[in-house]
Design a protein that fits this description.
Residues 281-351 form the Glucose-1-phosphate adenylyltransferase/Bifunctional protein GlmU-like C-terminal hexapeptide domain. By secondary structure, the chain is an alpha/beta fold. The protein contains nine helices and 28 strands.
């Protein structure tokens, strides 16, 4: 069986989630009640039987490192292979690389030493449940140099305007990578390539003074290299703004959408926290809401998501909102179309109301 290693490249991902990325990178943003966005990427890799995963992180990665630890939650705390968090700590005076190529160049030992035959490179902003073994089979059958993954999106949203799009011929060969806002072939910021060819492309890019591996080394080499397109047909969400985060989080309140992402045969793993089950007081009334463990609920909640350890006082009302870990909503407070980051306190009687298309966001550890 062919071996695959994974690289999660966060270097070029912009922190566009406003208050939610004040203190963390986008990959560490909590999502779906008990996970972080990067959990989906790592789980996809480990479910595809990858034994080595590297994370290229450049800024605001303290929260990310605290969450990932040694990779135990994903069975990556192992003697051979495992999880490698690779922040920008290098001091090579001969290094001429720029941009995310600095990560590839200064961590080239990870690529050289891995026993894998192929490397999957992915970001963290595309939430999905994909089997990279299927991508590998498509890659091998096509005989391509690189295989990129895309989603055919019928209902384009504002977040797709920032994504690259693909033009594909009848043989699934990519003929153009562009930013046409009307195109439905959304590139999912993930691709697979042979290890030796990846090494060659990295060295070639650095020799020519490039600064972005995908844009310069892959997109910039069309049509000289054969790029195959693999269509992913499962659940997908692109999260690169507060609005896309809010909208795609709320979609998980639909049972079919939730089950399509969280599949029994390919589970999503996260850091384990042993907490008691949630408690519901007689005064509570909860409908169509995801409630994580450790919560204490005494108020009215509908169409919302509560992360671990949230406390909701008697008489409080929460509608269409996302409440992250350890927040406390005191008695008779009202929240509607609101996102609370971790450790926030909403005082008794306080009312916060945002718009459905523009939720009101409260940064971490605020008291209002």
């Amino acid at each position: 069986m062919d071996r695959i290693a994974g690289i999660i490249n966060l270097d070029h991902e912009q922190d566009l989630l406003d208050e939610l990325t004040y203190f963390r990178c986008g990959a560490a943003v909590p999502f779906a009640g008990r996970y972080r966005m990067i959990d989906f990427t790592i789980s996809n890799m480990t479910n595809s039987r990858m034994e080595s995963v590297a994370v290229f992180a450049r800024r605001k990665y303290r929260s990310l490192m605290d969450h990932l630890e040694q990779g135990k939650a994903w069975d990556l705390d192992r003697k051979r292979g495992g999880l490698f968090i690779l922040p920008p700590d290098w001091n090579d005076p001969t290094d001429l690389s720029r941009g995310d190529l600095q990560h590839f160049h200064n961590n080239i030992d990870f690529i050289k030493r891995t026993l894998a035959d192929y490397i999957v490179v992915s970001g963290s902003q595309n939430i999905c449940n994909i089997n990279y073994r299927d991508v590998l089979e498509s890659h091998k059958e096509s005989g391509a140099d690189v295989t990129v993954v895309y989603k055919k999106v019928r209902d384009l949203q504002p977040e797709h305007n920032l994504a690259h799009k693909l033009t594909i011929d009848d043989s699934n060969r990519v003929v153009s990578i562009h930013n046409d806002q009307q195109s439905s072939n959304v590139y999912m910021d993930m691709y697979i390539v042979e290890k030796d060819y990846l090494y060659y492309l990295v060295e070639n890019c650095i020799a020519h003074g490039c600064s972005h591996f995908f844009l310069d080394g892959i997109k910039g080499r069309l049509p000289d290299i054969h790029i195959n397109a693999y269509e992913y047909e499962g659940s997908h969400a692109l999260i690169n703004s507060v609005e896309s985060y809010y909208r795609n989080s709320k979609k998980l309140l639909n049972r079919s959408a939730h089950d399509e992402l969280f599949k029994e045969q390919s589970p999503v793993y996260t850091k384990i926290k042993n907490e008691a089950p949630s408690k519901y007081a007689r005064s509570s009334n909860v409908t169509n809401t995801l409630v994580a463990n450790g919560c204490v609920v005494g108020g009215h909640i509908e169409d919302s998501i509560l992360f671990r350890g949230v406390k909701v006082g008697k008489g409080a009302v929460i509608k269409n909102s996302i409440i992250m870990q350890r927040c406390e909503i005191e008695e008779n407070a009202v929240l509607e179309n609101v996102i609370l980051d971790k450790d926030c306190t909403i005082s008794s009687g306080r009312t916060l109301i945002g718009a459905p298309e523009k939720p009101f966001v409260v940064a971490k550890s605020k008291t209002m």
